[in-house]
Here is the input.
Amino acid sequence: MTSAQILPILLLCCSNVFMTFAWYGQLRYPNTPLWILVLAGWGIAFFEYCLAVPANHYGYRVYNAAQLKTIQEVITLGVFAIFSVTYLGESLKWNHLVAFGLLSLAAFFAFHKW
Here is the structure.
């Protein structure tokens, strides 16, 4: 892999960490007023956007749109799996692993040259 192929993946990984916290980090604060959660989420999402836009901008030079979206979805699932176990204290079950496997299969089809 070249740096042009790796950079968008790294940026998408970082952006997904921010977005996961923006969307789901508030679940640990059920008694916080909703307006504060929304503002905090927007603040976090700003940094996600600052990484996702360049990831897609540079990524589109080496990947097509379907491939970029597939990369993003696989990364999202991986980041969320780690987040839900480490931050939310939830466990991964067999069906989650099957879902990840099916998404990996989708990635195979998105990247396979037919």
